Amino acid sequence: MINKEIYKELKKRIVYLDYKPKQVLNIKELAKEFGVSPMPIREVLILLETEKLVHIIPN
């Protein structure tokens, strides 16, 4: 349930260019902002990558 809300919010921010193209999104910062552990953020970013909205760069 929380993942769905995070997904909607991050997708909205991407589509409305709240995040600039090629802007680095920090998983730990996003987790802190949304009050969740990093895992739900990772899951949402993986989903957004399948939609070609983000590109995940491995560490």
Automatic annotation (TrEMBL):
<protein>
    <recommendedName>
        <fullName>HTH gntR-type domain-containing protein</fullName>
    </recommendedName>
</protein>
<dbReference type="InterPro" id="IPR000524">
    <property type="entry name" value="Tscrpt_reg_HTH_GntR"/>
</dbReference>
<dbReference type="GO" id="GO:0003700">
    <property type="term" value="F:DNA-binding transcription factor activity"/>
</dbReference>
<dbReference type="InterPro" id="IPR036388">
    <property type="entry name" value="WH-like_DNA-bd_sf"/>
</dbReference>
<dbReference type="InterPro" id="IPR036390">
    <property type="entry name" value="WH_DNA-bd_sf"/>
</dbReference>
<dbReference type="Pfam" id="PF00392">
    <property type="entry name" value="GntR"/>
</dbReference>
<keyword id="KW-0804">Transcription</keyword>
<keyword id="KW-0238">DNA-binding</keyword>
<feature type="domain" description="HTH gntR-type">
    <location>
        <begin position="6"/>
        <end position="58"/>
    </location>
</feature>
<keyword id="KW-0805">Transcription regulation</keyword>
<dbReference type="GO" id="GO:0003677">
    <property type="term" value="F:DNA binding"/>
</dbReference>
